[in-house]
Amino acid sequence: MPPDVHALAERLKRDYERFSPAQQSLARYLADHLADVPLLSAHEVARASHCSPATVVRFAQALGYAGYPEMQRIVRRAQRPGLPPRPGDRQLGLPFSAEGLDAAMAAERLALDDAAERLTSSGLGSIVAALGPRAPLIIAGEGHARSIVTLIEERLARAGRPVSAVTSLDPAARAWLDALGPEGAVLAIAIGRESRVAQAAVSAARAAGVPAAALVDSSLSPLARSPLARVVPADTRDGSPTLVAMVAVAQALAGALAPSRARADLAAVGA
Q: pTM of this prediction?
């Protein structure tokens, strides 16, 4: 497995002739866009390099990685400072050293910078266009995604937009999904392995013939296959996702989905 981005670039160049035609197309794209890999889902890479998402995943595995997300982490590591020491590495009774705190803050700042790349019209424009005129909007997610669901729900509710939050699959929640009408829409949030609620909401939207968009933290999520899905990669610390980038994207999306008058009022307050 190439241990860093420089070794990965060298591997792509050195073994190019050994790759299949589909892998060569993918290798050329990766070599030319390595800096963009942390921002791109496997499906986005597949479309850009004219191959299948499965080819992207298998190619990453052929290079020695567990999958495409691990290859993303290798590239991202070269763009971000390291995370602070673990709690067991405490010094002088502090959670971590001053240097560790600086590194943590810098890592979070760069996470927000990465998220900002997704806040352009090309990143969120199609989602806003699909969900914008719809009512009610159902926002669905469980586990770590609940905080994102609540954030978007509360912001849109304050702006006067009809929204409903679904965070479980109990009978009451199922009733909301089963009652989804022709004017409604779904925004599904999935973080980590907890995606049952989000998938159920997307399935309900498809059954009703209404738009469904998704924010996910992994290109391997089943929800990432939707054309209205956006992958927001997140670093992991001891297996738990950090929500910094996801919160930034959710805030921007909530602002864009708020009624136009409310957006104008918020802008006036900000000015």
A: 0.57
